[in-house]
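Record 1 of the preview.
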Amino acid sequence: MQKTLTEKEAEDFLEKEGFDVVKRAIIKKEEDIKEAEKIVGYPWVMKASSRKLAHKAKFGGVILGISNQINAQVSFDQLAKLPEFEEAIVQEIADGEEVIIGLKKTPEFGHVLMFGKGGSKVEEEKDVSFRVLPLGKRELEELIKEPKIYKILEEKQANMALLKKSLLKTIELAKKYPNLLELDINPLFVSQKKARIADARIIFED
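->
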């Protein structure tokens, strides 16, 4: 048996484990929009959230640049029509380069760590590298430097210390939760000052 967390549950879990997550709120009905405004403030990203809706962007489940209450109401009505819709999650807009951090438990190797360029085209671009856990400092450096996104992060003077901290925390999760089957942090926005999670997916073995 497997337990898939909703995006909100996954992000709350990671926040409790010490990761930096963007401000967010849940909208289950239009009346929740005003409360979300107080928590997040505009502009927003609004996303459909569901245990069964893994690739939101492919199904039109992500709406960017929501700047007022009317935009929010129209966007919520649009997302609510999607199949498998459960709720909408709204988030502040983060800046920085998009990277992906992944963790997968395999029958052959145990937990495998992934790092690379994030965003909606991860599967097409395949700019990622993998290492079997546990791994040392040198292997972690190699993992980070292999993908092409590394040079872009350097050029943009992204905060590599915070990126490494996020990767180390991910490694700790594998030790702490041996029943953690899959973790996808995509994207993690890495800027000069921050490394913040804007989307996450987690599956546990029961």
